Amino acid sequence: MKSLTEQLWFEVKGRRGFVNITELIQKSGVREGLCLVNAMHITAAVFINDNESGLLHDYEVWLEKLAPHAPTSQYQHNRTGEDNADAHLTTDHGPRSRGRDHQWPTRFWILRANLLR
Amino acid sequence: MKSLTEQLWFEVKGRRGFVNITELIQKSGVREGLCLVNAMHITAAVFINDNESGLLHDYEVWLEKLAPHAPTSQYQHNRTGEDNADAHLTTDHGPRSRGRDHQWPTRFWILRANLLR
Amino acid sequence: MKSLTEQLWFEVKGRRGFVNITELIQKSGVREGLCLVNAMHITAAVFINDNESGLLHDYEVWLEKLAPHAPTSQYQHNRTGEDNADAHLTTDHGPRSRGRDHQWPTRFWILRANLLR
Fold first, then answer.
1. A11 CA to chain B: closest CA distance, Å?
2. Is the ipTM of this complex over 0.90?
């Protein structure tokens, strides 16, 4: 059984960003198998969706509706000195594993990153 | 290590539908192991829950509350000519993998399908 | 390939509770591999997040906002005699698998439990 493990590092400019990681998945050369992609920050998520700018905009608006960032004082977690409770709450909005999926190497994988501060 | 891979095709009548795929999971004959069920459309989801019609109704009402379908103009994604941005946003509401779960062959697996148009 | 399977039982006092199961994950002694944690009740979820009391409070408030418990009559599922439709709806808010994650043995795994009644 062949496997490949990689740890990837990303930096985004704003507080929130979307990174297309499809090519990194394809790079493995695996055509069929089990692919596990973990967002290692608990304020980030990995999901699969269309590579369409309007949709990413909609996603951002939707997350803000589900868990508004401001006022930051609405979240007890922000009393710790952080101000990212909203991102902690929505971190689970994303799948982590795909298996035996013949199409996944050509899918659009997106890393939604949220700065820790 | 034994394994079984199957690609399943479904058609639902309306824009949204729920399909009980439990029997298809049971058909594998696997009693313990890793079961990965991917919804191959990014507007669909797989989840496990009670086989109870009231709950499926509640689920539908709840998804519509979280991401209303209309007015379709509220989503930039719909400027592409599609009108299913709401289904794209909620596609991640569903688990994809279950492992070493002695009970899963008898669980109620549900495929929530959303038409692409 | 080494593996460990365990079935864990928990009891919580209130209708909803959070249980830190990190130590149970660490107990496996596995430092790298595939870790699958299933909440075997469809009204419970497993997720990874900070071990911070304010955040758990925020999580509870947020779930109540997304799917309010009362009035229980708003959910058709509750006509079955149960009153936990809200917990059924939010059960998918949690990842189930983590793989090849060098950090996971030290992460804070949380079981969100909801009583069936």
1. 24
2. no
